[in-house]
Amino acid sequence: MSELFATTGTIAAIATAVVPQQGSVGIVRVSGSQAMAIAQSLFHAPGRQVWESHRILYGYIRHPQTQQIVDEALLLIMKAPRSYTREDVVEFHCHGGIMAVQQVLQLCLENGSRLAQPGEFTLRAFLNGRLDLTQAEGIADLVGAKSPQAAQSALAGLQGKLAHPIRQLRANCLDILAEIEARIDFEEDLPPLDDKAIVSEIDKIAAEITRLLETKDKGELLRTGLKVAIVGRPNVGKSSLLNAWSRSDRAIVTDLPGTTRDVVESQLVVGGIPVQVLDTAGIRETTDQVEKIGVERSRRAANAADLVLLTIDASAGWTEGDEEIYEKVQHRPLIIVINKIDLLEESKRTTLQSQIPNRSTERSRSPKSKIVTAAAQNQGIDALETAILEIVQSGKVQAADMDLAINQRQAAALTQAKISLEQVQATIVQQLPLDFWTIDLRGAIQALGEITGEEVTESVLERIFSRFCIGK
Protein backbone atom coordinates (compact mmCIF):
# COMPACT_ATOMS: atom_id res chain seq x y z
CA MET A 1 0.00 0.00 0.00
CA SER A 2 1.35 3.45 -0.94
CA GLU A 3 2.24 6.15 1.59
CA LEU A 4 -0.82 8.10 0.51
CA PHE A 5 -3.07 5.37 1.92
CA ALA A 6 -1.28 5.04 5.25
CA THR A 7 -4.18 7.02 6.72
CA THR A 8 -3.90 5.75 10.27
CA GLY A 9 -2.59 7.80 13.15
CA THR A 10 -2.63 11.53 13.73
CA ILE A 11 -1.36 13.87 11.03
CA ALA A 12 -0.16 17.48 11.11
CA ALA A 13 0.77 20.07 8.48
CA ILE A 14 1.03 23.79 7.87
CA ALA A 15 -2.29 24.76 6.30
CA THR A 16 -1.37 28.25 5.08
CA ALA A 17 1.22 29.59 2.67
CA VAL A 18 4.55 30.25 4.35
CA VAL A 19 6.06 33.51 3.10
CA PRO A 20 9.10 35.13 4.76
CA GLN A 21 8.19 38.35 6.61
CA GLN A 22 4.68 38.32 5.11
CA GLY A 23 1.28 37.09 6.20
CA SER A 24 -0.34 37.96 9.50
CA VAL A 25 -1.48 34.42 10.41
CA GLY A 26 -0.02 30.95 9.93
CA ILE A 27 -2.10 27.84 10.70
CA VAL A 28 -0.91 24.38 11.77
CA ARG A 29 -3.64 21.76 11.38
CA VAL A 30 -3.72 18.46 13.29
CA SER A 31 -6.22 15.64 12.65
CA GLY A 32 -6.65 12.25 14.33
CA SER A 33 -7.26 10.50 17.60
CA GLN A 34 -4.31 12.22 19.33
CA ALA A 35 -5.16 15.75 18.16
CA MET A 36 -6.70 16.85 21.47
CA ALA A 37 -3.90 15.30 23.52
CA ILE A 38 -1.30 17.12 21.41
CA ALA A 39 -3.15 20.41 21.82
CA GLN A 40 -3.42 19.96 25.59
CA SER A 41 0.30 19.18 25.88
CA LEU A 42 1.38 22.22 23.84
CA PHE A 43 -1.24 24.92 24.44
CA HIS A 44 -1.69 26.87 27.65
CA ALA A 45 -5.03 28.69 27.89
CA PRO A 46 -4.96 31.10 30.88
CA GLY A 47 -8.03 31.68 33.00
CA ARG A 48 -11.13 29.49 32.89
CA GLN A 49 -11.48 28.98 29.16
CA VAL A 50 -13.56 25.91 28.28
CA TRP A 51 -11.97 23.21 26.12
CA GLU A 52 -14.96 22.16 24.05
CA SER A 53 -15.72 21.66 20.37
CA HIS A 54 -16.05 24.63 18.06
CA ARG A 55 -14.56 27.09 20.48
CA ILE A 56 -11.51 29.30 20.02
CA LEU A 57 -9.09 29.53 22.91
CA TYR A 58 -6.49 32.24 23.47
CA GLY A 59 -3.13 31.45 24.97
CA TYR A 60 0.47 30.38 24.47
CA ILE A 61 2.17 27.47 22.74
CA ARG A 62 4.87 26.08 24.99
CA HIS A 63 7.55 23.43 24.65
CA PRO A 64 6.22 20.61 26.89
CA GLN A 65 9.63 19.86 28.46
CA THR A 66 11.26 23.27 28.81
CA GLN A 67 8.01 25.28 29.09
CA GLN A 68 9.60 27.88 26.81
CA ILE A 69 6.95 29.95 25.01
CA VAL A 70 7.09 29.41 21.26
CA ASP A 71 4.24 31.71 20.21
CA GLU A 72 1.18 33.59 21.39
CA ALA A 73 -1.68 32.00 19.49
CA LEU A 74 -5.29 30.92 19.16
CA LEU A 75 -6.45 27.31 19.30
CA LEU A 76 -9.51 26.17 17.31
CA ILE A 77 -11.08 22.88 18.46
CA MET A 78 -13.33 20.76 16.21
CA LYS A 79 -14.22 17.36 17.62
CA ALA A 80 -15.40 14.41 15.53
CA PRO A 81 -17.59 14.07 13.60
CA ARG A 82 -18.15 17.83 13.19
CA SER A 83 -14.89 18.54 11.42
CA TYR A 84 -13.45 18.59 7.91
CA THR A 85 -12.02 15.07 8.24
CA ARG A 86 -14.71 13.74 10.62
CA GLU A 87 -11.88 13.15 13.07
CA ASP A 88 -10.81 15.28 16.01
CA VAL A 89 -9.15 18.36 14.50
CA VAL A 90 -7.27 21.20 16.17
CA GLU A 91 -5.73 24.23 14.52
CA PHE A 92 -3.01 26.40 16.00
CA HIS A 93 -3.43 29.95 14.62
CA CYS A 94 0.05 31.40 14.98
CA HIS A 95 1.78 34.56 13.89
CA GLY A 96 2.64 34.54 10.19
CA GLY A 97 6.04 34.14 8.63
CA ILE A 98 8.29 31.10 8.82
CA MET A 99 9.67 30.50 12.30
CA ALA A 100 6.51 30.34 14.42
CA VAL A 101 4.59 27.84 12.30
CA GLN A 102 7.68 25.71 11.64
CA GLN A 103 8.42 25.45 15.36
CA VAL A 104 4.80 24.61 16.21
CA LEU A 105 4.66 21.96 13.47
CA GLN A 106 7.89 20.42 14.78
CA LEU A 107 6.43 20.24 18.30
CA CYS A 108 3.33 18.49 16.92
CA LEU A 109 5.51 15.95 15.13
CA GLU A 110 7.54 15.33 18.29
CA ASN A 111 4.42 14.79 20.41
CA GLY A 112 2.37 12.15 18.64
CA SER A 113 1.67 13.14 15.03
CA ARG A 114 3.34 12.57 11.67
CA LEU A 115 3.62 14.89 8.67
CA ALA A 116 0.55 14.67 6.43
CA GLN A 117 0.89 13.47 2.84
CA PRO A 118 -0.31 15.79 0.03
CA GLY A 119 -4.10 15.93 0.15
CA GLU A 120 -4.35 13.59 3.13
CA PHE A 121 -6.76 15.78 5.09
CA THR A 122 -9.16 15.77 2.13
CA LEU A 123 -8.52 12.06 1.51
CA ARG A 124 -9.59 11.33 5.07
CA ALA A 125 -12.67 13.47 4.55
CA PHE A 126 -13.49 11.29 1.52
CA LEU A 127 -12.75 7.96 3.22
CA ASN A 128 -14.83 9.01 6.24
CA GLY A 129 -17.83 9.92 4.07
CA ARG A 130 -17.53 13.67 4.53
CA LEU A 131 -17.00 14.30 0.77
CA ASP A 132 -17.36 12.40 -2.48
CA LEU A 133 -14.69 12.52 -5.18
CA THR A 134 -16.37 15.29 -7.19
CA GLN A 135 -16.47 17.46 -4.08
CA ALA A 136 -12.83 16.70 -3.30
CA GLU A 137 -11.86 17.70 -6.84
CA GLY A 138 -13.99 20.81 -6.42
CA ILE A 139 -11.86 21.79 -3.42
CA ALA A 140 -8.66 21.42 -5.45
CA ASP A 141 -10.19 23.48 -8.27
CA LEU A 142 -11.34 26.16 -5.85
CA VAL A 143 -7.85 26.53 -4.38
CA GLY A 144 -6.39 26.84 -7.89
CA ALA A 145 -9.15 28.99 -9.41
CA LYS A 146 -7.84 31.77 -11.68
CA SER A 147 -11.10 33.70 -12.11
CA PRO A 148 -14.42 34.27 -10.32
CA GLN A 149 -16.15 31.98 -12.83
CA ALA A 150 -13.61 29.22 -12.20
CA ALA A 151 -14.24 29.59 -8.48
CA GLN A 152 -17.99 29.46 -9.07
CA SER A 153 -17.67 26.27 -11.10
CA ALA A 154 -15.49 24.72 -8.37
CA LEU A 155 -18.07 25.66 -5.74
CA ALA A 156 -20.77 24.00 -7.83
CA GLY A 157 -18.78 20.77 -7.68
CA LEU A 158 -18.19 21.22 -3.96
CA GLN A 159 -21.94 21.69 -3.41
CA GLY A 160 -22.71 18.39 -5.19
CA LYS A 161 -24.17 19.81 -8.39
CA LEU A 162 -22.19 17.27 -10.43
CA ALA A 163 -22.50 14.37 -7.99
CA HIS A 164 -26.32 14.53 -7.95
CA PRO A 165 -26.93 13.89 -11.68
CA ILE A 166 -24.16 11.25 -11.75
CA ARG A 167 -25.73 9.38 -8.83
CA GLN A 168 -29.13 9.60 -10.50
CA LEU A 169 -27.74 8.14 -13.75
CA ARG A 170 -26.07 5.33 -11.83
CA ALA A 171 -29.29 4.62 -9.91
CA ASN A 172 -31.18 4.41 -13.20
CA CYS A 173 -28.63 1.91 -14.53
CA LEU A 174 -28.94 -0.13 -11.33
CA ASP A 175 -32.73 -0.20 -11.74
CA ILE A 176 -32.34 -1.53 -15.30
CA LEU A 177 -29.83 -4.12 -14.08
CA ALA A 178 -32.23 -5.23 -11.34
CA GLU A 179 -35.01 -5.66 -13.91
CA ILE A 180 -32.79 -7.80 -16.14
CA GLU A 181 -31.38 -9.93 -13.32
CA ALA A 182 -34.86 -10.51 -11.95
CA ARG A 183 -35.84 -12.04 -15.32
CA ILE A 184 -32.71 -14.22 -15.25
CA ASP A 185 -33.45 -15.55 -11.76
CA PHE A 186 -37.28 -15.66 -11.85
CA GLU A 187 -38.12 -15.80 -15.56
CA GLU A 188 -41.17 -18.07 -15.08
CA ASP A 189 -42.72 -15.89 -12.36
CA LEU A 190 -42.43 -12.48 -14.10
CA PRO A 191 -43.87 -10.98 -17.30
CA PRO A 192 -41.53 -10.75 -20.32
CA LEU A 193 -38.99 -7.93 -20.34
CA ASP A 194 -39.98 -4.88 -22.41
CA ASP A 195 -36.96 -4.51 -24.72
CA LYS A 196 -38.17 -1.22 -26.18
CA ALA A 197 -38.63 0.32 -22.75
CA ILE A 198 -35.10 -0.73 -21.76
CA VAL A 199 -33.64 0.78 -24.95
CA SER A 200 -35.61 3.99 -24.42
CA GLU A 201 -34.36 4.32 -20.84
CA ILE A 202 -30.77 3.72 -21.95
CA ASP A 203 -31.21 6.40 -24.63
CA LYS A 204 -32.23 8.89 -21.95
CA ILE A 205 -29.23 8.02 -19.79
CA ALA A 206 -26.85 8.28 -22.77
CA ALA A 207 -28.34 11.67 -23.73
CA GLU A 208 -27.70 13.04 -20.22
CA ILE A 209 -24.13 11.69 -20.31
CA THR A 210 -23.63 13.46 -23.65
CA ARG A 211 -24.87 16.73 -22.11
CA LEU A 212 -22.40 16.42 -19.27
CA LEU A 213 -19.56 15.58 -21.66
CA GLU A 214 -20.21 18.81 -23.54
CA THR A 215 -19.02 20.76 -20.48
CA LYS A 216 -15.50 19.26 -20.62
CA ASP A 217 -14.02 21.92 -22.90
CA LYS A 218 -15.34 24.82 -20.88
CA GLY A 219 -14.10 23.10 -17.73
CA GLU A 220 -10.60 22.88 -19.16
CA LEU A 221 -10.82 26.49 -20.28
CA LEU A 222 -11.73 27.63 -16.76
CA ARG A 223 -9.00 25.56 -15.12
CA THR A 224 -6.10 26.16 -17.47
CA GLY A 225 -7.12 29.42 -19.14
CA LEU A 226 -6.52 30.64 -22.68
CA LYS A 227 -3.01 31.24 -23.95
CA VAL A 228 -2.91 34.20 -26.35
CA ALA A 229 0.21 35.23 -28.30
CA ILE A 230 0.59 38.75 -29.73
CA VAL A 231 2.77 38.42 -32.83
CA GLY A 232 3.76 40.70 -35.69
CA ARG A 233 6.59 42.66 -37.24
CA PRO A 234 8.76 44.91 -35.05
CA ASN A 235 7.30 48.26 -34.01
CA VAL A 236 3.68 47.54 -34.96
CA GLY A 237 2.52 48.25 -31.38
CA LYS A 238 2.47 44.79 -29.81
CA SER A 239 3.86 46.03 -26.49
CA SER A 240 1.51 49.02 -26.49
CA LEU A 241 -1.38 46.60 -27.05
CA LEU A 242 -0.30 44.47 -24.08
CA ASN A 243 0.09 47.53 -21.84
CA ALA A 244 -3.28 48.97 -22.83
CA TRP A 245 -4.99 45.63 -22.40
CA SER A 246 -3.41 44.82 -19.03
CA ARG A 247 -3.56 48.46 -17.87
CA SER A 248 0.09 48.27 -16.88
CA ASP A 249 3.57 48.94 -18.21
CA ARG A 250 4.68 45.32 -18.42
CA ALA A 251 6.35 45.83 -21.80
CA ILE A 252 8.87 48.51 -22.82
CA VAL A 253 7.49 50.77 -25.55
CA THR A 254 9.79 52.81 -27.81
CA ASP A 255 9.91 53.91 -31.44
CA LEU A 256 12.89 51.63 -32.03
CA PRO A 257 12.09 48.37 -33.79
CA GLY A 258 13.17 45.20 -31.99
CA THR A 259 12.84 46.60 -28.45
CA THR A 260 11.16 43.45 -27.14
CA ARG A 261 13.82 40.73 -27.17
CA ASP A 262 11.97 38.06 -25.19
CA VAL A 263 8.43 36.93 -24.45
CA VAL A 264 6.65 39.17 -21.90
CA GLU A 265 3.73 37.61 -20.05
CA SER A 266 0.63 39.09 -18.42
CA GLN A 267 -2.35 37.42 -16.71
CA LEU A 268 -5.85 38.75 -17.46
CA VAL A 269 -9.46 37.67 -17.15
CA VAL A 270 -11.75 38.08 -20.18
CA GLY A 271 -15.43 37.24 -19.84
CA GLY A 272 -14.64 35.09 -16.83
CA ILE A 273 -11.92 33.16 -18.66
CA PRO A 274 -8.31 33.35 -17.39
CA VAL A 275 -6.09 34.59 -20.22
CA GLN A 276 -2.31 34.35 -20.36
CA VAL A 277 -1.13 37.01 -22.82
CA LEU A 278 2.32 36.69 -24.39
CA ASP A 279 3.89 39.76 -25.98
CA THR A 280 6.52 38.40 -28.35
CA ALA A 281 9.54 39.85 -30.10
CA GLY A 282 8.95 41.30 -33.55
CA ILE A 283 9.32 38.64 -36.23
CA ARG A 284 11.80 39.60 -38.95
CA GLU A 285 15.06 38.50 -40.49
CA THR A 286 17.95 39.83 -38.40
CA THR A 287 21.68 39.39 -37.90
CA ASP A 288 21.51 40.40 -34.24
CA GLN A 289 22.09 37.14 -32.35
CA VAL A 290 20.04 38.16 -29.29
CA GLU A 291 17.13 39.38 -31.41
CA LYS A 292 17.32 36.18 -33.47
CA ILE A 293 16.76 34.14 -30.31
CA GLY A 294 13.77 36.35 -29.44
CA VAL A 295 12.28 35.85 -32.92
CA GLU A 296 12.58 32.07 -32.60
CA ARG A 297 10.87 32.20 -29.20
CA SER A 298 8.10 34.28 -30.76
CA ARG A 299 7.50 31.60 -33.38
CA ARG A 300 7.37 28.89 -30.74
CA ALA A 301 4.95 30.95 -28.64
CA ALA A 302 2.65 31.42 -31.64
CA ASN A 303 2.62 27.68 -32.35
CA ALA A 304 1.88 26.84 -28.71
CA ALA A 305 -0.84 29.47 -28.22
CA ASP A 306 -4.58 28.75 -28.24
CA LEU A 307 -5.17 32.04 -30.06
CA VAL A 308 -2.88 34.32 -32.09
CA LEU A 309 -3.27 38.09 -32.33
CA LEU A 310 -1.48 39.07 -35.56
CA THR A 311 -0.86 42.77 -35.10
CA ILE A 312 -0.17 45.08 -38.04
CA ASP A 313 0.63 48.78 -38.34
CA ALA A 314 -2.30 50.53 -40.05
CA SER A 315 -0.11 53.45 -41.11
CA ALA A 316 2.27 51.07 -42.92
CA GLY A 317 -0.49 49.00 -44.53
CA TRP A 318 -0.41 45.28 -45.23
CA THR A 319 3.24 44.54 -45.93
CA GLU A 320 5.17 41.60 -47.30
CA GLY A 321 6.42 40.94 -43.77
CA ASP A 322 2.83 40.75 -42.50
CA GLU A 323 2.00 38.31 -45.30
CA GLU A 324 4.93 36.05 -44.37
CA ILE A 325 3.86 35.93 -40.72
CA TYR A 326 0.25 35.34 -41.72
CA GLU A 327 1.26 32.34 -43.82
CA LYS A 328 2.90 30.80 -40.76
CA VAL A 329 0.02 31.36 -38.32
CA GLN A 330 -3.12 31.21 -40.46
CA HIS A 331 -3.78 27.59 -39.44
CA ARG A 332 -4.24 28.79 -35.83
CA PRO A 333 -7.35 30.47 -34.36
CA LEU A 334 -6.49 34.04 -35.35
CA ILE A 335 -7.49 37.66 -34.84
CA ILE A 336 -5.87 40.26 -37.06
CA VAL A 337 -5.39 43.41 -34.98
CA ILE A 338 -5.11 46.54 -37.16
CA ASN A 339 -3.26 48.79 -34.72
CA LYS A 340 -2.36 52.50 -34.91
CA ILE A 341 -5.61 53.13 -36.75
CA ASP A 342 -5.52 56.70 -35.42
CA LEU A 343 -2.50 57.36 -37.67
CA LEU A 344 -4.36 56.35 -40.83
CA GLU A 345 -6.58 58.78 -42.74
CA GLU A 346 -10.27 57.85 -42.79
CA SER A 347 -10.28 57.69 -46.60
CA LYS A 348 -7.56 55.03 -46.63
CA ARG A 349 -9.10 52.65 -44.09
CA THR A 350 -11.35 50.87 -46.59
CA THR A 351 -8.39 50.30 -48.90
CA LEU A 352 -6.39 48.77 -46.05
CA GLN A 353 -9.25 46.46 -45.08
CA SER A 354 -9.38 45.13 -48.63
CA GLN A 355 -5.64 44.34 -48.56
CA ILE A 356 -5.87 42.15 -45.47
CA PRO A 357 -6.53 38.42 -46.19
CA ASN A 358 -10.09 37.31 -45.69
CA ARG A 359 -9.94 34.05 -47.53
CA SER A 360 -11.00 30.54 -46.50
CA THR A 361 -8.55 27.89 -47.64
CA GLU A 362 -7.81 24.35 -46.56
CA ARG A 363 -5.07 25.72 -44.26
CA SER A 364 -7.07 28.58 -42.80
CA ARG A 365 -10.34 27.08 -41.61
CA SER A 366 -9.70 28.06 -38.00
CA PRO A 367 -11.88 30.89 -36.63
CA LYS A 368 -10.66 34.38 -37.62
CA SER A 369 -11.74 37.98 -37.27
CA LYS A 370 -10.37 41.52 -37.75
CA ILE A 371 -10.53 44.42 -35.33
CA VAL A 372 -9.04 47.92 -35.26
CA THR A 373 -7.21 49.44 -32.31
CA ALA A 374 -5.22 52.47 -31.29
CA ALA A 375 -3.40 50.86 -28.40
CA ALA A 376 -1.38 53.96 -27.52
CA GLN A 377 -4.70 55.77 -27.05
CA ASN A 378 -6.31 52.83 -25.18
CA GLN A 379 -8.85 52.41 -27.96
CA GLY A 380 -10.29 49.14 -29.29
CA ILE A 381 -9.63 46.93 -26.24
CA ASP A 382 -13.34 46.21 -25.69
CA ALA A 383 -13.67 45.16 -29.33
CA LEU A 384 -10.63 42.90 -28.92
CA GLU A 385 -12.13 41.14 -25.90
CA THR A 386 -15.45 40.73 -27.71
CA ALA A 387 -13.64 39.16 -30.68
CA ILE A 388 -11.80 36.76 -28.35
CA LEU A 389 -15.04 35.61 -26.75
CA GLU A 390 -16.57 35.10 -30.20
CA ILE A 391 -13.61 32.91 -31.15
CA VAL A 392 -14.08 30.92 -27.95
CA GLN A 393 -17.79 30.47 -28.61
CA SER A 394 -17.18 29.42 -32.20
CA GLY A 395 -15.32 26.44 -30.76
CA LYS A 396 -18.50 25.45 -28.88
CA VAL A 397 -16.99 26.54 -25.57
CA GLN A 398 -19.38 28.85 -23.79
CA ALA A 399 -17.94 31.83 -21.96
CA ALA A 400 -21.08 32.20 -19.86
CA ASP A 401 -23.12 29.83 -17.69
CA MET A 402 -20.03 28.16 -16.25
CA ASP A 403 -21.90 26.66 -13.31
CA LEU A 404 -21.04 23.05 -14.10
CA ALA A 405 -17.95 21.76 -15.86
CA ILE A 406 -16.33 18.32 -15.72
CA ASN A 407 -12.61 17.59 -15.70
CA GLN A 408 -10.59 15.12 -17.76
CA ARG A 409 -10.91 12.23 -15.31
CA GLN A 410 -14.65 12.65 -15.06
CA ALA A 411 -14.94 12.95 -18.85
CA ALA A 412 -12.99 9.71 -19.34
CA ALA A 413 -15.32 7.86 -16.96
CA LEU A 414 -18.43 9.32 -18.60
CA THR A 415 -17.13 8.36 -22.04
CA GLN A 416 -16.54 4.79 -20.84
CA ALA A 417 -20.06 4.68 -19.40
CA LYS A 418 -21.53 5.88 -22.69
CA ILE A 419 -19.55 3.27 -24.68
CA SER A 420 -20.76 0.55 -22.30
CA LEU A 421 -24.38 1.64 -22.74
CA GLU A 422 -23.99 1.60 -26.51
CA GLN A 423 -22.71 -1.96 -26.21
CA VAL A 424 -25.80 -2.88 -24.17
CA GLN A 425 -28.01 -1.52 -26.92
CA ALA A 426 -26.07 -3.44 -29.55
CA THR A 427 -26.47 -6.60 -27.49
CA ILE A 428 -30.22 -6.06 -27.30
CA VAL A 429 -30.48 -5.48 -31.06
CA GLN A 430 -28.55 -8.71 -31.67
CA GLN A 431 -31.05 -10.50 -29.38
CA LEU A 432 -28.31 -12.08 -27.28
CA PRO A 433 -29.22 -13.73 -23.94
CA LEU A 434 -29.96 -11.50 -20.96
CA ASP A 435 -26.69 -12.47 -19.26
CA PHE A 436 -24.84 -10.62 -22.02
CA TRP A 437 -26.90 -7.49 -21.39
CA THR A 438 -25.68 -7.29 -17.80
CA ILE A 439 -21.94 -7.38 -18.65
CA ASP A 440 -21.72 -3.94 -20.26
CA LEU A 441 -24.42 -2.52 -18.01
CA ARG A 442 -22.21 -3.33 -15.03
CA GLY A 443 -19.36 -1.61 -16.86
CA ALA A 444 -21.44 1.58 -17.15
CA ILE A 445 -22.39 1.39 -13.46
CA GLN A 446 -18.76 0.99 -12.46
CA ALA A 447 -17.62 3.91 -14.65
CA LEU A 448 -20.27 6.21 -13.16
CA GLY A 449 -19.34 5.05 -9.66
CA GLU A 450 -15.71 5.99 -10.28
CA ILE A 451 -16.72 9.63 -10.75
CA THR A 452 -18.21 10.03 -7.28
CA GLY A 453 -16.01 7.43 -5.59
CA GLU A 454 -18.65 4.76 -4.98
CA GLU A 455 -16.41 2.46 -7.00
CA VAL A 456 -12.80 3.57 -7.12
CA THR A 457 -9.30 2.12 -7.16
CA GLU A 458 -6.26 3.08 -5.15
CA SER A 459 -4.47 4.34 -8.27
CA VAL A 460 -7.34 6.74 -9.06
CA LEU A 461 -7.33 8.14 -5.53
CA GLU A 462 -3.57 8.54 -5.59
CA ARG A 463 -3.77 10.43 -8.88
CA ILE A 464 -6.44 12.78 -7.53
CA PHE A 465 -5.06 13.56 -4.08
CA SER A 466 -1.41 13.84 -5.07
CA ARG A 467 -2.36 17.15 -6.78
CA PHE A 468 -3.30 18.69 -3.43
CA CYS A 469 -0.96 20.71 -1.25
CA ILE A 470 0.26 19.04 1.96
CA GLY A 471 -1.96 21.06 4.32
CA LYS A 472 -5.26 20.43 2.49
Automatic annotation (TrEMBL):
GO terms for biological process: tRNA methylation; tRNA wobble uridine modification. GO terms for cellular component: cytosol. Residues 225-393 form the TrmE-type G domain. GO terms for molecular function: GTP binding; GTPase activity; identical protein binding; metal ion binding. Its cofactor is K(+). Binds 1 potassium ion per subunit. GTP binds at residues 235-240, 254-260, 279-282. It is found in: Cytoplasm. Keywords: Cytoplasm, GTP-binding, Hydrolase, Magnesium, Metal-binding, Nucleotide-binding, Potassium, tRNA processing. Mg(2+) binds at S239, T260. (6S)-5-formyl-5,6,7,8-tetrahydrofolate binds at R29, E91, R130, K472. Pfam families: MMR_HSR1, MnmE_helical, TrmE_N. K(+) binds at N235, T254, L256, T259. PANTHER family: TRNA MODIFICATION GTPASE GTPBP3, TRNA MODIFICATION GTPASE GTPBP3, MITOCHONDRIAL. HAMAP family: GTPase_MnmE. Belongs to the TRAFAC class TrmE-Era-EngA-EngB-Septin-like GTPase superfamily. TrmE GTPase family. Exhibits a very high intrinsic GTPase hydrolysis rate. Involved in the addition of a carboxymethylaminomethyl (cmnm) group at the wobble position (U34) of certain tRNAs, forming tRNA-cmnm(5)s(2)U34. This is tRNA modification GTPase MnmE. It comes from Nostoc punctiforme NIES-2108. The gene is mnmE.
